[in-house]
Structure formats: C-alpha cells, structure tokens
Write a structure and sequence with these properties.
The protein is mainly α. Helix content is about 55%, strand content about 5%.
C-alpha cells in the first residue's frame, strides 16, 4: 500500500479517488474497452458482476464507500457463500457452480488490474479459488429431431421462410445467437458459402454455410424487396424509426431468436428443450460423429481453449461405444 500512502501527502483528493473501489471500477471498465479491446457485451457483464460484488461488500461491511483495503480474502469468502446460497430469479434454483465462477473470474481480473496497472496492494488473484467446474452435458438434437424442428415453419408466411433460414444458418455455422443477430446481408458470400464473424473476445473466425442453408437464405432473400442492412428482420413489434435508413431498428434481437427456436421445438414435439445454443451443440456433435477432429471443431466454434470443445467428446467417443458393444456379454 506504499504507493497509496504516498498519495496522501501529494493529494488527499487523489488518495480518496484511488482507494474508492467504485472509482477504480469505472477506470477498470474503461481499461477493458480501450486497452483490452473487449466487446461491449463482455464489458456489460463485467460491470454487472463487479457491481454485484461492490453492493454485497457495502452491505456486509455496513459502509457507504468501500476502499481497496476493505477487500480481503475473508470478504471474498463471504461473497462466495452468498453466491452459493442465492436463488436465481429466472430458474428459481440455486446458482450453478459455473455461474458462480463467472462472478469470481471477474473479481480476479479486477484485482489483477489493481495490482499490475495501479500498483495497489490487495488480494492476489491466485488466492481466490474458483472451485471445480460442474460437469456439463451439452443439449443437442439428433438427426430425427433436427428434421422435425426444421419442418414445422409456415412457409406461406415470409416470417416462416425467414425462421427456416435462421435455423439452417444456426445449425450449419454453429454461430452463437449474439453473432447471428449482428449479421448483415453483405456479410454473406453466397458463392463461396462462407463469411467471417467476430466472436467472443473480438476473435475473428471463418464459418461455412451448407447447401441447405444457402437454399433457404436464397428463398428468404426472395421475400424481401428492401435494401436494409440487417440479414434478419423482424416483422412485428414497434414501428421502424423514421430516421432509420439502414433498417437497424428492424434487426431481430437475441431474445426474438431464442423465442422462435423454443416455439418450433414445442411445435415439433421433440423432447429437447431446444435453444439457439442447442443448434450450435448439434453442429459440433454432428461434425465429431462424422469424423471431424477436435481442433477443427474448436476453430469452427471459435473456442479459445480446446478444453471447452472437449465437452462433446464423451458423447461422440465412438471407440468406447465399439468396446462396449464388443465386450459386453448379454
């Protein structure tokens, strides 16, 4: 804390600024935006997680202002207990371990910033144990389920043609829904059936469209007589903004795509509670079952670490199934 102590003699105002976690939090988010070039979505999530920790700290410590010196391993441990005992307003269940971990990862990143960039004496990030990840079993659709969900749109409506194109693109490319809704018409190279997408961490990757996806995109384009920029437009809800010349106000939202996937899953009668991410899982599983190597699937999905892609291996490990079939005696 030597640097901070020295600040007292230079400027009490500056000292108060640097020990106030609320001020440092703003600095950190600006650092994430400018220096680390993180996406706005990532910055919003960091803001949410760290504000949650700050609100807990104020309440637990009974202090209107939390300083850097107030952050201790004991405080963080109390916060971990608080997270573990919380009930999600959405699921009405306890927060999953992996969800709790995201809060702690944000705190560790913030503490690293305080130590490395601000030369402040605080809890070392490595001292915060993230705990073990929960085993995740990705929800995916098998061949029959995919056929059923792809075959229940009302193709007499332009929204039905659009929705079929959306489902085909999601399955063909393995895009995250946040990536899908940001696409523009000029992003797609129909001739080469590929396009570039900026994913998490602003990482650029190339994704590929199947012939089926191209076919339905072409059918969808035939229903449009506009020059609007977004690839997928909404056909209901609030009116288009008068000053909007590119059609940005008509762009489909993440929530809209999530709702339409769920609607068609229910309509098709499949047993999977499908989401856009289920189609991403389905694409990865399908590739691996048909012989694709893990590194290629990692690249196509835009995973930073191959360990993330390995969640599919226990589903697609054909060798284990063959051993089971060969040696299991009836």
């Amino acid at each position: 804390m030597e640097d901070v102590v020295n600040l007292v003699f230079v400027s009490p105002r500056l000292y108060n600024y640097y020990v106030n976690v609320e001020n440092l939090l703003i600095d950190y988010l600006e650092f994430c935006e400018i220096d680390k070039n993180l996406s706005q979505d990532t910055i919003k999530m960091y803001h949410y997680y760290l504000n949650d920790f700050l609100a807990f700290s104020k309440s637990h410590l009974e202090k209107p202002v939390v300083s850097v010196k107030d952050i201790s391993l004991e405080l963080i441990q109390k916060y971990r207990i608080n997270l573990n005992r919380r009930i999600s307003a959405k699921s009405h269940e306890s927060l999953k371990r992996n969800t709790q971990k995201t809060f702690l990862v944000a705190i560790r990143a913030f503490l690293k910033y305080l130590i490395v960039k601000r030369s402040l004496d605080t809890v070392a990030p490595a001292q915060i144990d993230l705990g073990k990840d929960e085993a995740r079993v990705p929800k995916y659709l098998n061949g029959e389920q995919l056929e059923r969900i792809m075959d229940v749109q009302n193709l007499d409506k332009r929204s039905g043609v659009r929705d079929r194109a959306i489902l085909e693109v999601l399955f063909s490319t393995g895009l995250r829904v946040s990536e899908l809704v940001k696409l523009n018409r000029d992003s797609i190279n129909v001739e080469t059936r590929e396009f570039a997408v900026v994913g998490k961490g602003r990482k650029l990757r190339t994704v590929y469209l199947s012939q089926e996806a191209i076919k339905w995109l072409d059918k969808y384009f035939q229903t449009r007589n506009d020059d609007f920029k977004p690839l997928f437009l909404r056909y209901s809800g609030r009116k288009m903004k008068t000053e909007d010349v590119d059609g940005a106000s008509l762009r489909l939202t993440v929530r809209s795509v999530q709702r339409l996937v769920k609607k068609y899953a229910l309509k098709s009668g499949i047993s999977v509670d499908a989401t856009p991410h289920s189609l991403r899982h389905s694409m990865a599983t399908n590739l691996l079952l048909n012989g694709a190597d893990l590194r290629s699937v990692q690249e196509l999905l835009g995973h930073t670490n191959v360990s993330t892609t390995q969640i599919y291996t226990h589903i697609t490990n054909k060798r284990l199934k063959d051993v089971h079939d060969l040696y299991l005696k009836k």
